[in-house]
Amino acid sequence: MSTALRYRQTHILKKAGFSVFALIVAVSYAFPLLYMVASAFKSDYTIVPPRLIFPPTLDTFKIVVANPDIWRAFGNSFYITIVSLILSVALGCLCSYVMVFARFRKPTTPGKIYYWFVTCFILPPVAVLIPLYLFFKTIGILGSQWSMIYIYVGTHSPLVIWIMHPHFAEIPKEIVESADIDGCGKILRFFKIIFPMVGNGVWTASLLLFIFLWNEFFFSFNLTAGQQSTLPVFISRFGQKPQMFWHTLCAASVISVLPTIVVGFFSQRSFAKGIIFGAVKG
Amino acid sequence: MAENILSKQYAAILTPKKKLSMERFLVLPGIIATGLFTQVAFLISIAFSLLNWNLARPDLGIRFVNIQNYIYLFTRDPAFWRVLFNTIILTSGSLIMCVIFGILLAMMLNRDFFGRAIVRTLILFPFFVMSTVTGLIWKTIMLDYTYGWLSELCKILPFLRDISWSAKFPLAAVILLTTWQWLPFFVLVILAGFQGIPGEIVEAAKIDGANRLRSLISIELPYIKGHIQVAIMLGLIFILKEVGIVQTLTAGGPGSRSTNLAYYIYKAVFYNTQVGRASALSNVTVVIILTILSFVYNRVLKAQQEALA
């Protein structure tokens, strides 16, 4: 056997050994989630004591799916998330575009506005909870879907700007100027030339926002209740049930984390890039 | 110098003077939306903190009490210092764990091995799970002391006693869960940093005789310092407002032993119905958070400027 071949063999063996190690680390890290999915297929007889081998059943899912409350919460979450997502991404893109391309009286103004937005993003949500609670209570829309949407758009637009601003700033000015010289209108210029160039950033911001909005608990926990509650609030109420609830909890959890898991699975790469891009170049 | 002036003159000649366009006002909707729900609301909250206002007793009316609420908070509030201490321990503990394990896992993922995509996906999953699910799942199927996996572990390892660990060490349990939830985010950011290190630098260190540890400490970690700072800054923002895990795992208890500031404000408004005191509490929280953040943020900015220079 030649030394080159032997070297190759030990290399592959080492690699395989490391793969096994890495897989063990990953599986034990994700174990609570994997076991949660498995438990969703258990019945109230097999849920305790904890065992990895059990006769799988769909009965638990049938019970959970038959409950209209989870679908109401799911619908609330979905409506609030999608509408706030579209509004904040649109608003954030518009602001970033204006800050980069519009001419202000003082050239330093856009930079100042940008830092103001970043500061708003840093401001913790506890600072604004009480006035917003009393304000929505006074005008009588406390906990409604639109009150949540207003709050989410206001608090999440800075995040979009934080991600989008560097993307707009990266566009070469010459391209925009040549479009102007060719007689391209402002609106056409935005949609035909600038928007396709920041498409990647829009995608990243939307995915990130979807995950944050879907899982948002602080505001929804404090402001929504009963029929208006969002999915995280609905789940949090499971803990207060007296009887054995673990199997239904697991099934409901699987349903509620499925959208973010799917979105997250397809966005792993752009996700990391988007965060870094906004932060390191910001 | 002369060239500079010349090029500036050329630029002035070549770029035609454009009128100030109306499109600059399109930034206003964003400013209004954000300003209304952050800055204006915050200013109102400052005003509220100077009032004595009990939501459950409208007959008492709303009275101006100056800084009484703040004095109450610092001197007579039974749980404030405890909660502040908890918040600091919880945040710094989770951040330190996240950075250490984040670097280790990112190093693991940065190597070449079979099934890397599966391993990376498995490690990322907890980040996409909502915090209430994290709290309840861990509380039931993992940490429950009669039927959870922890009790199974206690059967195998006799030195672990069969007790409710999450009730005995509530803060440690909250730290564990927060770390579990936020670690993937740190791994992602730090991994991106590792992948940005040019291969030649590490090669050169190897040729110069640096071993694996030496090269990590002296070359790779300084290189990804900026990424670690960004991760810490964002992690700080999100971990400081964590209520989902606290609410579902321990509900802040027993007593106030695992209550953090964010959860304490919730209790102040909705259990004690004291708007003034709750506002004072939230303003103190904001001052603490912004002080810490501006410290970290300035360091990040400085690192950025150094990187650009």
What Rg of chain A do the Cα atoms give? 25 Å
Strand order of the largest sheet of chain B: 1-2
The number of helical runs of chain A is: 13
Global structural class of chain B: mainly alpha
Residues in helix, % of chain B: over 70%
Largest interface in this structure: A-B, 94 and 98 residues
Oligomer: heterodimer
Mean pLDDT of chain B: 81
Number of strands of chain B: 2
**Largest sheet entry of chain B:** 2 strands, antiparallel
> What radius of gyration of chain B results from the CA coordinates?
26 Å
Residue share in β-strands of chain B: under 5%
Which regions of chain B have little confidence, pLDDT < 50, spanning 5+ residues?
none
Offer a few descriptive terms:
heterodimer; A: 282 residues; B: 309 residues; mainly alpha; two-stranded antiparallel sheet; 15 helices; 72% helix
Q: How would you describe what is shown here?
A:
Chain A is mainly α and 282 residues long. Chain A has 13 helices and no strands. Chain A has helices at residues 3-29, 31-39, 59-66, 68-101, 109-122, 126-138, 145-169, 173-181, 186-197, 199-215, 218-223, 231-236, 246-281. The mean pLDDT of chain A is 84. Chain B is mainly alpha-helical. Chain B has helices at residues 2-14, 28-48, 68-76, 80-110, 116-128, 131-142, 149-156, 165-168, 170-195, 199-207, 212-223, 225-240, 244-249, 261-270, 275-308, and strands at 51-52, 63-64. In chain B, helix 3 packs across helix 15 (275-308), helix 4 (80-110) runs parallel beside helix 9 (170-195) and helix 12 packs antiparallel against helix 15. The longest helix of chain B is centred in the C-terminal third of the chain and has 34 residues, at 275-308. Chain B is globular and about 80 Å long. The model of chain B has no long low-confidence stretch (mean pLDDT 81). The interface between A and B is large, with 94 and 98 residues.
Secondary-structure map with pairings?
The complex is a heterodimer of chains A (282) and B (309).
Chain A: H1 3-29, H2 31-39, H3 59-66, H4 68-101, H5 109-122, H6 126-138, H7 145-169, H8 173-181, H9 186-197, H10 199-215, H11 218-223, H12 231-236, H13 246-281
Chain B: H1 2-14, H2 28-48, E1 51-52, E2 63-64, H3 68-76, H4 80-110, H5 116-128, H6 131-142, H7 149-156, H8 165-168, H9 170-195, H10 199-207, H11 212-223, H12 225-240, H13 244-249, H14 261-270, H15 275-308
Antiparallel strand pairs in B: 1-2
Helix pairs in contact in B: 2-15, 3-15, 4-9, 4-12, 5-9, 9-12, 10-11, 12-15, 14-15
